[in-house]
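Retro notes, item 3 of 5
We never archived the inputs for the succinic acid complex last cycle. Fixing that now. Sequence and ligand:
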Amino acid sequence: MVTVTDEQIAAFRTEGFVHIPSVISPSEAAHFYEAALDYTRRNPSLSNRPVFDQHVNVWTHDSAMRALTLHPSLAAAARTLNGTALRLWHDQILIKQPHNNAATEFHQDQPYWPHATSPNPISAWIALCDVPAEKGCMTFLPGSFKHTDLPAQNLGDPRSLFQIEPEFVWFPRVTVPLKAGDCTFHHGRCAHMATPNFTDDPRVAHIVIFMETTTTYSGRGHVVTDPLGLTTGELIMGELFPLV
Ligand code: SIN
Ligand code: NI
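Structure as it came back at the time:
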């Protein structure tokens, strides 16, 4: 089990993101890299953009990837960093194809989600291959998670977030290269982008998103909740959102 230090907890709570090396071992990363690519060969992508191939809630369909989404090290680190009880919100495989020529532009994640009350969501972004700066690497705006209630930003438009929140123009940008098996955790409102993949190999990442147990449904459309018939204002809970 990975150890999260007091310095890492403090960094996460101040900046809204933190790099935790070796959350899974190199051999686990190699195993899940193959499992993720195998999954994407058998299932169509949700996204038809060059930005990334996206496969949501793979843990409900695929036992190999379920072992990663429900990996005890991820949940333990997320709970320690957040200091709260957590449920799984959803997972996603995100692949940037070789030479995809498209950044994932700056955005916060939470405005995309159908969450009315959403205190501190936390995402684990797990590198299943080495991800240096030129291979679809994440970049964060420290402290940006304190900016709440922003409308959803356009992650295909490099200006979108900065038009919505001009103060962010002056924030430092922190790029975090990851080795296979490393992870960044980011707050659901920490603004981030990912570079294009300039390399000859796919960038394979698995993202596991956790939410606090007080998170309620807003009624906004979302691929995970649309089939469930939820009522606006109710707690998001049940077997699709297990406690971790
Ligand atoms: C990406 O990996 O391309 C983006 C991930 C994210 O926006 O959370
Ligand atoms: Ni994002």
